[in-house]
Write a structure and sequence with these properties.
- It contains 15 helices and 17 strands.
- The protein is an alpha/beta fold and 415 residues long.
- The protein has two domains: 142 residues, Alpha-Beta Complex (Aspartate Aminotransferase, domain 1), CATH 3.90.1150; 257 residues, Aspartate Aminotransferase, domain 2 (3-Layer(aba) Sandwich), CATH 3.40.640.10.
- The chain is globular, with a radius of gyration of 22 Å.
- Bound molecules: pyridoxal-5'-phosphate.
- Pyridoxal-5'-phosphate binds next to helix 5.
Length: 415
Protein backbone atom coordinates (compact mmCIF):
# COMPACT_ATOMS: atom_id res chain seq x y z
CA UNK A 1 0.00 0.00 0.00
CA UNK A 2 2.79 2.32 0.96
CA UNK A 3 4.43 2.07 -2.45
CA UNK A 4 1.09 2.85 -4.03
CA UNK A 5 0.93 6.02 -1.97
CA UNK A 6 4.45 7.16 -2.73
CA UNK A 7 4.36 6.49 -6.44
CA UNK A 8 0.88 7.95 -6.93
CA UNK A 9 0.76 11.14 -8.99
CA UNK A 10 -0.44 14.35 -7.39
CA UNK A 11 -3.07 14.70 -10.09
CA UNK A 12 -4.74 17.72 -8.53
CA UNK A 13 -1.44 19.58 -8.68
CA UNK A 14 -0.74 18.39 -12.21
CA UNK A 15 -4.16 19.55 -13.39
CA UNK A 16 -3.27 23.12 -12.41
CA UNK A 17 -0.74 23.04 -15.26
CA UNK A 18 -3.54 22.36 -17.78
CA UNK A 19 -6.09 25.20 -17.61
CA UNK A 20 -7.98 23.74 -20.58
CA UNK A 21 -9.22 20.98 -18.25
CA UNK A 22 -11.28 23.62 -16.43
CA UNK A 23 -13.38 24.34 -19.51
CA UNK A 24 -17.09 23.85 -19.16
CA UNK A 25 -19.72 23.02 -21.75
CA UNK A 26 -23.30 24.00 -20.79
CA UNK A 27 -22.17 24.27 -17.18
CA UNK A 28 -20.50 20.84 -17.09
CA UNK A 29 -16.77 20.53 -16.69
CA UNK A 30 -14.84 18.88 -19.51
CA UNK A 31 -13.65 15.31 -19.03
CA UNK A 32 -10.93 14.86 -21.63
CA UNK A 33 -10.44 11.19 -22.51
CA UNK A 34 -9.17 11.51 -26.08
CA UNK A 35 -5.49 11.45 -25.24
CA UNK A 36 -4.51 8.77 -27.72
CA UNK A 37 -5.56 11.25 -30.44
CA UNK A 38 -3.76 14.19 -28.88
CA UNK A 39 -2.81 15.21 -25.35
CA UNK A 40 -3.23 18.58 -23.69
CA UNK A 41 -0.32 20.97 -23.29
CA UNK A 42 0.91 22.18 -19.90
CA UNK A 43 1.54 25.84 -19.17
CA UNK A 44 5.28 25.18 -19.01
CA UNK A 45 5.27 24.10 -22.66
CA UNK A 46 2.96 26.94 -23.76
CA UNK A 47 5.30 29.35 -21.95
CA UNK A 48 8.31 27.91 -23.77
CA UNK A 49 6.62 28.53 -27.12
CA UNK A 50 5.72 32.09 -26.11
CA UNK A 51 9.24 32.72 -24.83
CA UNK A 52 10.68 31.49 -28.11
CA UNK A 53 8.51 33.83 -30.21
CA UNK A 54 8.86 36.74 -27.79
CA UNK A 55 12.58 36.54 -27.28
CA UNK A 56 14.63 34.57 -29.77
CA UNK A 57 12.58 33.76 -32.87
CA UNK A 58 14.92 33.48 -35.87
CA UNK A 59 15.78 31.05 -38.59
CA UNK A 60 18.37 28.46 -37.62
CA UNK A 61 21.72 27.53 -39.11
CA UNK A 62 21.58 30.50 -41.48
CA UNK A 63 22.50 33.60 -39.58
CA UNK A 64 25.45 34.75 -37.58
CA UNK A 65 23.38 37.29 -35.67
CA UNK A 66 22.61 36.79 -31.98
CA UNK A 67 19.00 35.71 -32.39
CA UNK A 68 19.84 33.10 -34.99
CA UNK A 69 22.62 31.75 -32.82
CA UNK A 70 20.34 31.47 -29.81
CA UNK A 71 17.59 29.78 -31.82
CA UNK A 72 20.12 27.40 -33.43
CA UNK A 73 21.61 26.34 -30.10
CA UNK A 74 18.15 25.76 -28.57
CA UNK A 75 16.96 23.84 -31.61
CA UNK A 76 20.07 21.66 -31.82
CA UNK A 77 20.05 20.96 -28.10
CA UNK A 78 16.39 19.92 -28.37
CA UNK A 79 17.57 17.04 -30.60
CA UNK A 80 20.03 15.93 -27.91
CA UNK A 81 17.30 16.14 -25.26
CA UNK A 82 14.91 13.99 -27.29
CA UNK A 83 17.66 11.49 -28.09
CA UNK A 84 18.55 11.20 -24.42
CA UNK A 85 14.87 10.80 -23.50
CA UNK A 86 14.58 7.61 -25.58
CA UNK A 87 18.05 6.28 -24.80
CA UNK A 88 19.82 7.07 -28.10
CA UNK A 89 23.50 7.38 -27.28
CA UNK A 90 24.28 8.88 -30.69
CA UNK A 91 22.54 12.08 -29.51
CA UNK A 92 21.39 14.55 -32.19
CA UNK A 93 22.87 12.55 -35.05
CA UNK A 94 20.33 9.81 -34.39
CA UNK A 95 17.32 12.08 -33.83
CA UNK A 96 15.52 13.59 -36.84
CA UNK A 97 12.66 16.02 -36.31
CA UNK A 98 9.76 15.44 -38.70
CA UNK A 99 6.15 16.59 -38.81
CA UNK A 100 4.69 13.58 -36.97
CA UNK A 101 4.92 9.79 -36.66
CA UNK A 102 3.33 9.43 -40.09
CA UNK A 103 6.07 11.46 -41.74
CA UNK A 104 8.72 9.49 -39.86
CA UNK A 105 7.25 6.28 -41.31
CA UNK A 106 7.21 7.78 -44.82
CA UNK A 107 10.75 9.06 -44.46
CA UNK A 108 12.10 5.56 -43.83
CA UNK A 109 9.79 3.91 -46.34
CA UNK A 110 10.91 6.25 -49.11
CA UNK A 111 14.52 6.99 -48.19
CA UNK A 112 15.37 3.40 -47.23
CA UNK A 113 12.62 1.30 -48.82
CA UNK A 114 12.68 2.68 -52.35
CA UNK A 115 16.41 1.89 -52.53
CA UNK A 116 16.43 -1.41 -50.71
CA UNK A 117 13.18 -3.22 -51.56
CA UNK A 118 12.33 -5.14 -54.70
CA UNK A 119 10.46 -8.20 -55.96
CA UNK A 120 11.08 -11.22 -53.72
CA UNK A 121 11.62 -9.04 -50.63
CA UNK A 122 9.14 -8.99 -47.77
CA UNK A 123 8.01 -6.41 -45.24
CA UNK A 124 6.36 -7.90 -42.16
CA UNK A 125 3.78 -5.80 -40.29
CA UNK A 126 1.35 -6.66 -37.51
CA UNK A 127 -2.40 -6.85 -38.01
CA UNK A 128 -2.74 -4.07 -35.45
CA UNK A 129 -0.69 -1.46 -37.30
CA UNK A 130 -1.99 2.10 -37.45
CA UNK A 131 -2.62 3.29 -41.02
CA UNK A 132 0.51 5.45 -40.66
CA UNK A 133 2.54 2.28 -40.92
CA UNK A 134 0.15 -0.05 -42.72
CA UNK A 135 -0.75 2.19 -45.66
CA UNK A 136 2.81 3.46 -46.03
CA UNK A 137 4.44 0.02 -46.30
CA UNK A 138 1.50 -1.39 -48.30
CA UNK A 139 1.91 1.32 -50.92
CA UNK A 140 5.68 1.02 -50.89
CA UNK A 141 5.22 -2.69 -51.52
CA UNK A 142 3.19 -1.80 -54.60
CA UNK A 143 5.88 0.60 -55.85
CA UNK A 144 8.79 -1.78 -55.30
CA UNK A 145 7.24 -5.20 -55.85
CA UNK A 146 7.97 -6.27 -52.26
CA UNK A 147 5.34 -8.42 -50.50
CA UNK A 148 3.70 -7.22 -47.31
CA UNK A 149 2.79 -9.85 -44.70
CA UNK A 150 0.97 -9.52 -41.40
CA UNK A 151 1.64 -11.11 -38.02
CA UNK A 152 -1.82 -12.21 -36.81
CA UNK A 153 -3.47 -10.88 -33.68
CA UNK A 154 -5.06 -13.62 -31.57
CA UNK A 155 -8.52 -13.54 -29.98
CA UNK A 156 -7.21 -11.91 -26.82
CA UNK A 157 -5.54 -9.10 -28.72
CA UNK A 158 -1.94 -10.36 -28.50
CA UNK A 159 0.45 -10.95 -31.40
CA UNK A 160 0.85 -14.59 -32.37
CA UNK A 161 4.59 -14.79 -31.81
CA UNK A 162 4.85 -18.34 -33.19
CA UNK A 163 3.40 -17.05 -36.44
CA UNK A 164 5.84 -14.11 -36.25
CA UNK A 165 8.75 -16.55 -36.03
CA UNK A 166 7.46 -18.33 -39.16
CA UNK A 167 6.69 -15.15 -41.09
CA UNK A 168 10.02 -13.44 -40.51
CA UNK A 169 12.47 -15.19 -42.84
CA UNK A 170 15.58 -14.48 -44.86
CA UNK A 171 13.30 -12.79 -47.42
CA UNK A 172 12.23 -10.25 -44.79
CA UNK A 173 13.93 -6.90 -45.16
CA UNK A 174 11.89 -4.83 -42.70
CA UNK A 175 9.59 -5.55 -39.76
CA UNK A 176 7.36 -2.64 -38.78
CA UNK A 177 5.49 -3.02 -35.51
CA UNK A 178 3.45 -0.79 -33.27
CA UNK A 179 4.82 -0.69 -29.70
CA UNK A 180 1.49 0.00 -27.96
CA UNK A 181 -1.66 -0.50 -30.04
CA UNK A 182 -3.82 2.62 -30.26
CA UNK A 183 -6.92 0.42 -30.59
CA UNK A 184 -6.31 -2.69 -28.48
CA UNK A 185 -4.00 -1.22 -25.87
CA UNK A 186 -1.73 -4.25 -26.38
CA UNK A 187 1.89 -3.68 -25.39
CA UNK A 188 3.84 -5.60 -28.00
CA UNK A 189 7.13 -7.46 -27.35
CA UNK A 190 9.06 -5.22 -29.72
CA UNK A 191 12.42 -6.37 -28.33
CA UNK A 192 11.56 -9.96 -29.28
CA UNK A 193 10.44 -8.83 -32.72
CA UNK A 194 13.73 -6.93 -33.10
CA UNK A 195 15.65 -10.13 -32.27
CA UNK A 196 13.63 -12.10 -34.81
CA UNK A 197 14.25 -9.44 -37.47
CA UNK A 198 17.98 -9.26 -36.73
CA UNK A 199 18.32 -13.07 -36.78
CA UNK A 200 17.40 -12.75 -40.46
CA UNK A 201 19.43 -9.60 -41.16
CA UNK A 202 16.25 -7.57 -41.44
CA UNK A 203 15.60 -4.21 -39.79
CA UNK A 204 12.83 -3.20 -37.41
CA UNK A 205 10.85 0.03 -37.40
CA UNK A 206 8.90 0.59 -34.18
CA UNK A 207 5.89 2.90 -34.09
CA UNK A 208 6.09 4.34 -30.60
CA UNK A 209 3.34 6.96 -30.94
CA UNK A 210 1.40 5.44 -28.01
CA UNK A 211 4.43 4.32 -26.00
CA UNK A 212 6.87 7.23 -25.66
CA UNK A 213 4.23 9.53 -24.10
CA UNK A 214 3.54 7.26 -21.16
CA UNK A 215 6.34 4.83 -20.35
CA UNK A 216 10.12 4.74 -20.24
CA UNK A 217 11.38 3.80 -23.70
CA UNK A 218 14.96 2.78 -24.44
CA UNK A 219 15.50 2.35 -28.16
CA UNK A 220 18.88 0.71 -27.61
CA UNK A 221 17.52 -1.82 -25.11
CA UNK A 222 14.83 -2.69 -27.68
CA UNK A 223 17.54 -2.68 -30.36
CA UNK A 224 15.20 -0.79 -32.69
CA UNK A 225 16.75 0.27 -35.98
CA UNK A 226 14.15 3.03 -36.33
CA UNK A 227 11.69 4.31 -33.75
CA UNK A 228 9.04 7.02 -34.33
CA UNK A 229 6.74 9.13 -32.18
CA UNK A 230 4.71 12.39 -32.20
CA UNK A 231 5.10 15.49 -30.03
CA UNK A 232 1.38 16.24 -29.77
CA UNK A 233 0.68 12.93 -27.99
CA UNK A 234 3.18 13.63 -25.20
CA UNK A 235 2.23 17.05 -23.81
CA UNK A 236 4.13 18.76 -26.62
CA UNK A 237 3.03 20.89 -29.57
CA UNK A 238 1.48 19.77 -32.85
CA UNK A 239 3.59 19.87 -36.00
CA UNK A 240 6.56 17.89 -34.73
CA UNK A 241 7.40 14.20 -34.74
CA UNK A 242 10.61 12.34 -34.11
CA UNK A 243 12.49 9.66 -35.94
CA UNK A 244 15.25 7.83 -34.12
CA UNK A 245 17.50 5.88 -36.47
CA UNK A 246 20.76 4.05 -35.89
CA UNK A 247 23.52 6.35 -37.08
CA UNK A 248 25.03 4.00 -39.65
CA UNK A 249 21.60 3.46 -41.25
CA UNK A 250 20.76 7.16 -41.40
CA UNK A 251 24.20 7.79 -42.85
CA UNK A 252 23.69 5.21 -45.58
CA UNK A 253 20.22 6.48 -46.53
CA UNK A 254 19.57 9.05 -49.22
CA UNK A 255 17.64 12.18 -48.18
CA UNK A 256 13.85 12.06 -48.23
CA UNK A 257 13.23 15.74 -49.01
CA UNK A 258 15.58 17.98 -50.94
CA UNK A 259 16.16 21.72 -50.74
CA UNK A 260 17.77 24.25 -48.47
CA UNK A 261 19.34 23.45 -45.08
CA UNK A 262 20.05 19.82 -45.94
CA UNK A 263 22.92 20.46 -48.36
CA UNK A 264 26.62 20.97 -47.89
CA UNK A 265 27.71 21.99 -51.42
CA UNK A 266 25.55 22.67 -54.46
CA UNK A 267 26.65 23.18 -58.05
CA UNK A 268 24.49 23.33 -61.19
CA UNK A 269 25.35 19.69 -61.75
CA UNK A 270 25.17 18.04 -58.33
CA UNK A 271 24.86 18.44 -54.56
CA UNK A 272 26.25 16.91 -51.37
CA UNK A 273 24.47 16.52 -48.07
CA UNK A 274 24.75 18.05 -44.62
CA UNK A 275 25.67 15.97 -41.59
CA UNK A 276 23.05 14.10 -39.59
CA UNK A 277 20.36 14.84 -38.67
CA UNK A 278 20.13 17.98 -40.88
CA UNK A 279 20.40 15.88 -44.03
CA UNK A 280 16.81 14.82 -43.30
CA UNK A 281 15.47 18.24 -42.29
CA UNK A 282 15.06 20.15 -45.56
CA UNK A 283 13.84 23.74 -45.50
CA UNK A 284 13.12 25.79 -42.41
CA UNK A 285 12.56 23.17 -39.72
CA UNK A 286 10.18 22.92 -36.76
CA UNK A 287 12.10 25.33 -34.55
CA UNK A 288 9.50 26.50 -32.01
CA UNK A 289 8.03 23.01 -31.88
CA UNK A 290 11.42 21.40 -31.28
CA UNK A 291 12.27 23.72 -28.42
CA UNK A 292 8.79 23.21 -26.94
CA UNK A 293 8.99 19.43 -27.26
CA UNK A 294 12.20 19.45 -25.26
CA UNK A 295 10.28 21.39 -22.59
CA UNK A 296 7.53 18.74 -22.68
CA UNK A 297 10.16 16.07 -22.08
CA UNK A 298 11.49 18.03 -19.09
CA UNK A 299 7.94 18.27 -17.78
CA UNK A 300 7.25 14.54 -18.14
CA UNK A 301 10.60 13.47 -16.71
CA UNK A 302 10.16 15.74 -13.68
CA UNK A 303 7.00 13.78 -12.92
CA UNK A 304 8.62 10.44 -13.80
CA UNK A 305 7.84 8.12 -16.70
CA UNK A 306 7.40 5.03 -14.51
CA UNK A 307 4.87 6.88 -12.37
CA UNK A 308 3.00 8.13 -15.43
CA UNK A 309 2.88 4.59 -16.79
CA UNK A 310 1.50 3.16 -13.54
CA UNK A 311 -1.07 5.95 -13.28
CA UNK A 312 -2.37 5.27 -16.79
CA UNK A 313 -2.39 1.51 -16.32
CA UNK A 314 -4.41 1.83 -13.12
CA UNK A 315 -6.92 4.09 -14.85
CA UNK A 316 -7.23 1.70 -17.77
CA UNK A 317 -7.81 -1.23 -15.43
CA UNK A 318 -10.38 0.73 -13.47
CA UNK A 319 -12.16 1.76 -16.67
CA UNK A 320 -12.07 -1.83 -17.91
CA UNK A 321 -13.66 -3.08 -14.68
CA UNK A 322 -16.27 -0.33 -14.45
CA UNK A 323 -17.32 -0.49 -18.10
CA UNK A 324 -17.79 -4.26 -17.97
CA UNK A 325 -19.97 -4.16 -14.83
CA UNK A 326 -22.96 -4.50 -17.13
CA UNK A 327 -22.75 -7.50 -19.42
CA UNK A 328 -23.38 -5.56 -22.62
CA UNK A 329 -19.96 -4.02 -23.25
CA UNK A 330 -17.23 -5.54 -25.46
CA UNK A 331 -13.77 -4.22 -24.78
CA UNK A 332 -11.23 -5.12 -27.46
CA UNK A 333 -7.76 -6.30 -26.56
CA UNK A 334 -6.01 -7.78 -23.53
CA UNK A 335 -7.40 -7.90 -19.98
CA UNK A 336 -7.64 -4.75 -17.88
CA UNK A 337 -4.46 -5.47 -15.92
CA UNK A 338 -2.27 -5.98 -19.00
CA UNK A 339 -2.73 -3.02 -21.32
CA UNK A 340 -1.66 0.51 -22.07
CA UNK A 341 -3.82 3.44 -20.98
CA UNK A 342 -6.80 3.08 -23.26
CA UNK A 343 -9.97 1.07 -23.80
CA UNK A 344 -11.80 0.67 -27.10
CA UNK A 345 -15.28 -0.72 -26.72
CA UNK A 346 -18.80 -1.12 -28.01
CA UNK A 347 -22.08 -1.20 -26.10
CA UNK A 348 -24.67 -3.65 -27.46
CA UNK A 349 -27.30 -1.85 -29.49
CA UNK A 350 -25.57 1.55 -29.46
CA UNK A 351 -23.49 2.67 -32.43
CA UNK A 352 -20.09 3.99 -31.38
CA UNK A 353 -20.81 7.37 -33.01
CA UNK A 354 -24.13 7.72 -31.18
CA UNK A 355 -22.40 6.71 -27.99
CA UNK A 356 -19.68 9.30 -28.31
CA UNK A 357 -22.24 11.96 -29.19
CA UNK A 358 -24.34 11.22 -26.09
CA UNK A 359 -21.21 11.02 -23.96
CA UNK A 360 -20.26 14.43 -25.38
CA UNK A 361 -23.56 15.81 -24.02
CA UNK A 362 -22.02 15.04 -20.62
CA UNK A 363 -18.89 16.98 -21.67
CA UNK A 364 -16.93 13.73 -21.82
CA UNK A 365 -14.59 13.71 -24.83
CA UNK A 366 -13.93 10.27 -26.29
CA UNK A 367 -13.30 9.10 -29.85
CA UNK A 368 -15.49 7.01 -32.12
CA UNK A 369 -14.47 5.43 -35.39
CA UNK A 370 -11.84 3.01 -36.60
CA UNK A 371 -8.93 4.88 -34.96
CA UNK A 372 -6.93 4.52 -38.19
CA UNK A 373 -7.02 0.72 -37.91
CA UNK A 374 -9.70 -0.20 -40.45
CA UNK A 375 -8.40 -3.70 -41.27
CA UNK A 376 -8.19 -4.50 -37.54
CA UNK A 377 -11.79 -3.35 -37.06
CA UNK A 378 -12.79 -5.55 -40.00
CA UNK A 379 -11.09 -8.45 -38.24
CA UNK A 380 -12.91 -7.62 -35.00
CA UNK A 381 -16.13 -7.65 -37.03
CA UNK A 382 -17.14 -4.08 -36.19
CA UNK A 383 -17.17 -0.94 -38.31
CA UNK A 384 -16.29 1.32 -35.42
CA UNK A 385 -15.59 1.44 -31.71
CA UNK A 386 -15.60 4.06 -28.98
CA UNK A 387 -12.23 4.73 -27.36
CA UNK A 388 -11.41 6.32 -24.00
CA UNK A 389 -7.73 7.05 -23.52
CA UNK A 390 -6.03 8.41 -20.42
CA UNK A 391 -3.12 10.61 -19.49
CA UNK A 392 -1.35 11.83 -16.41
CA UNK A 393 -4.04 14.40 -15.55
CA UNK A 394 -7.03 12.02 -15.61
CA UNK A 395 -8.74 10.71 -12.48
CA UNK A 396 -10.91 7.79 -11.39
CA UNK A 397 -13.74 10.28 -10.90
CA UNK A 398 -13.50 11.12 -14.59
CA UNK A 399 -13.76 7.42 -15.44
CA UNK A 400 -16.89 7.32 -13.25
CA UNK A 401 -18.32 10.21 -15.28
CA UNK A 402 -17.63 8.29 -18.47
CA UNK A 403 -19.41 5.24 -17.06
CA UNK A 404 -22.43 7.37 -16.05
CA UNK A 405 -22.55 8.91 -19.52
CA UNK A 406 -22.34 5.47 -21.14
CA UNK A 407 -25.19 4.36 -18.90
CA UNK A 408 -27.24 7.32 -20.11
CA UNK A 409 -26.68 6.20 -23.72
CA UNK A 410 -27.67 2.66 -22.78
CA UNK A 411 -30.92 3.89 -21.23
CA UNK A 412 -31.75 6.09 -24.20
CA UNK A 413 -31.30 3.25 -26.67
CA UNK A 414 -33.21 0.79 -24.47
CA UNK A 415 -36.35 2.94 -24.84
C1 LIG B 1 -0.02 3.95 -32.93
C2 LIG B 1 -0.06 5.19 -33.75
N1 LIG B 1 0.78 5.32 -34.79
C3 LIG B 1 0.79 6.41 -35.56
C4 LIG B 1 -0.06 7.45 -35.31
C5 LIG B 1 -0.01 8.64 -36.21
O1 LIG B 1 0.40 9.77 -35.49
P1 LIG B 1 0.43 11.18 -36.23
O2 LIG B 1 -0.98 11.46 -36.65
O3 LIG B 1 0.90 12.12 -35.18
O4 LIG B 1 1.33 11.05 -37.38
C6 LIG B 1 -0.96 7.38 -34.26
C7 LIG B 1 -1.93 8.47 -34.01
O5 LIG B 1 -3.07 8.29 -33.80
C8 LIG B 1 -0.95 6.22 -33.45
O6 LIG B 1 -1.80 6.09 -32.44
Amino acid sequence: METQQTDALDVERIREDFPILQREFDGTQLVYLDNAATTQTPEQVVETICDYYRNYNANVHRGIHHLSQEASVAYEEAHDRLAEFVGASGEREEMVFTKNTTESENLVAYAWGLEELGPGDEVVLTEMEHHASLVTWQQLGKKTGADVKYIPVDERGYLDMDAAADLITDDTKMVSAVHVSNTLGTVNPVGELADLAHDHDAYIFVDGAQAVPNRPVDVEAIDADFYAFSGHKMAGPTGIGCLYGKKHLLEEMEPYLYGGSMIRKVTYEDSTWEDLPWKFEAGTPVIAQGVALAAAVDYLEDIGMERIQRHEERLAEYAYDRLTEEGDVDIYGPPGDDRGGLVSFNVDGVHAHDLSSIVNDHAVAIRAGDHCTQPLHDKLGVAASARASFYLYNTREEVDKLVEAVDDARQLFAQ
